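Cross-posted from the bioinformatics board.
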Amino acid sequence: MDTTSIKAFGTEAADAALGEMGIQRRKVTDKDVEIDILYCGVCHSDLHFARNDWGFSVYPVVPGHEIVGKVKSVGEGVNKYKAGDIVAVGCLVDSCRSCSNCNNDLEQYCPEWVGTYGGHDKHLDLPTYGGYSESIVVDEHFVLSVPENLDLAGVAPVLCAGITTWSPLRHWNVGKDSKVAVVGLGGLGHMAIKLADALGAHVTLFSRSKNKIQDAKDLGADAVVISTNEDEMAAVQGQFDVIIDTVPYVHDVNPYIGTLNTNGTLVLVGYLGPLDPMLNTVPMIMGRKKVAGSLIGGIAETQELLDFCGKHNITSNIEVINIQDINTAYERMLKSDVHYRFVIDMASLKS
Amino acid sequence: MDTTSIKAFGTEAADAALGEMGIQRRKVTDKDVEIDILYCGVCHSDLHFARNDWGFSVYPVVPGHEIVGKVKSVGEGVNKYKAGDIVAVGCLVDSCRSCSNCNNDLEQYCPEWVGTYGGHDKHLDLPTYGGYSESIVVDEHFVLSVPENLDLAGVAPVLCAGITTWSPLRHWNVGKDSKVAVVGLGGLGHMAIKLADALGAHVTLFSRSKNKIQDAKDLGADAVVISTNEDEMAAVQGQFDVIIDTVPYVHDVNPYIGTLNTNGTLVLVGYLGPLDPMLNTVPMIMGRKKVAGSLIGGIAETQELLDFCGKHNITSNIEVINIQDINTAYERMLKSDVHYRFVIDMASLKS
């Protein structure tokens, strides 16, 4: 199959810094959209994948799945987009398109979903490469439309940090009568606060640090509960309909279960692994409480989110960097030294 | 307040056998129903409470919360029942009647719900005593009506084993398109199979023992999966909408999570304590799967179940015993040597 050589930024090994490299993109096929990438958000997963933290990276790795760009060309069968359109691509670029999950707009739970990077491009029989690159070629089904009024750099994190929190907020029917809590104030947490607030919910941030109180309120939180303060925790027992737990490392979720209302749900979106300390079933049984997981979101739901962001003028709080600064950005991200997401201005790749 | 002395069967200490004793019941007040007890089911909780396994028993303990009887007298304000009616009482005999849970027919999640035994009788300022007794006096709101066509001894376990499995089946919308699995085939498990089957679901039993295959099918199961058989477990990955886990002791729930469908829920109704081994969030996040707890059911829901049992002619599979055999029955129950519930013929207390 025909390919095009383009410039990208990636790594050849887990212990190597990211640097400029050449990669191959497939030529546009019937249903493909070719996108010049303008901005790409920097997600924790990018770093995990570049460094093979999960053990299944295939090198070279070109990260990036929070992509905003401009359509350069489209295949003959493409109806949704035309050259010049501002579009976005998130965490997935393909799926089987025929399983019950795909048929129910839950492509993210398709057993064969293809990640924007580290997946497998069926056309080329090659790994997929992400958005730290000049351009990308994606089937139109997986391309999203970006509302014109939004700041394009700030839109990028909506494609992962945003949808990862939006999907559970919507699935668990958060609205103006809801009481929502968010655990952790990072890339995901700050979007969870903005989105839950815009949905009309009463929003509380759980944080270990008093330093985050003003930041959380500026983002739209109605209250901040210091999770290490017993009195503050006691005061919110039985309060929350939904808790979005964005913490990406192992932590004790038991203290939060008590703060759920009857029928309440704690949704884990950040931490992958065993729940240590062990989850206690007693308060769950005594209040029909649930612990759930949730993964990004489907394509239709992502478009719904982008439209919602357009209507409510919501974007991420970001720090724009050049691609040449990505290795430093990773180090700062590990120290949570970013408010709240790095976004790469991909024009820097051309310089 | 006036009381009546009646005969009961209970224990004065955690290490003492159950024996005959006298207890006080309150005289019938305005909204009370006085019930002559005909049958009382024997629940695992009875044994835990008699032996103070949970550390909060107050002696004397008179167990029993699966009660079927005949109305002897009613208070002047009682509208629902009259002398001679066949009625039932389950696990709770009072609640605050004003919190949001009570207002939503979820009395079992009221912070002030009063257990049928081991609770606190506000009228007498005394502990409540259960159904191992001649009679009981209960506010009409907590008295259930028993369909005339049912075997009365077999109805008794519906009041706890039945409602404990019915409530999650209903809450998670089990119906004819559902795929349900049940973990454990005891008092709760056998009712879960019967009820899910009667709701029209496809029902699978997870069991460690091949000996239970025929029993499960006789009860209405469509399939039995031997949970220690890797091939059988692999064949049911991603299959179930709802799993009712009735196992009352600590066990590994992780193998069952993989057998849930996208959006599926594993509901713990038997085990109180920390989930050991630790619950792994990875398959939960990868399929928006949930782990939930559920406690008995509300009063309206229990009446709904009794009516459903009447319509479908469902009762428990039981072994009827005399009250004098209760200590032996406890020992047999500990060895799971009962198919599937002991029910005491309370006429034996008069002999």
